[in-house]
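Regression test case RT-17, inverse folding.

Input:
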């Protein structure tokens, strides 16, 4: 994958995620159908292009970081510890950078969710 294509993929993936986050807010001014159509355009364009494999890897990496951060961190540590083995099996530098991007976005998402979520009200313990 050429550098300029990788940059475009990363920028569009970030845009795609940012658009998806907009649909999660309870803002009535957000047009969910229009946003979803734009997200689908990005996905369709990359799915049908020559870099579908890289796009799918980035999407899967994001899902893994979002849903299984501890397990994914262990995998990345193993990849870094055994880089020659993974590269010999076809793991690319582009995929490694995708893992980093996906981790950063998933971390941002967790922070945003915490910021937008109301604090949990714990019952007050009273002694008698």
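Golden output:
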């Amino acid at each position: 994958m050429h550098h300029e294509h990788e940059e475009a993929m990363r920028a569009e993936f970030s845009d795609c995620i940012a658009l998806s986050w907009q649909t999660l807010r309870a803002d009535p001014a957000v047009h969910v159908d229009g946003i979803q159509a734009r997200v689908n355009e990005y996905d369709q364009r990359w799915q049908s292009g020559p870099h579908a494999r890289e796009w799918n890897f980035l999407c899967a990496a994001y899902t893994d970081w979002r849903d299984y951060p501890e397990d994914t961190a262990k995998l990345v540590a193993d990849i870094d510890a055994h880089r020659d083995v993974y590269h010999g099996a076809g793991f690319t530098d582009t995929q490694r950078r995708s893992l980093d991007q996906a981790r950063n976005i998933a971390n941002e998402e967790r922070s945003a969710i915490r910021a937008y979520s109301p604090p949990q009200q714990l019952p007050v313990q009273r002694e008698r």
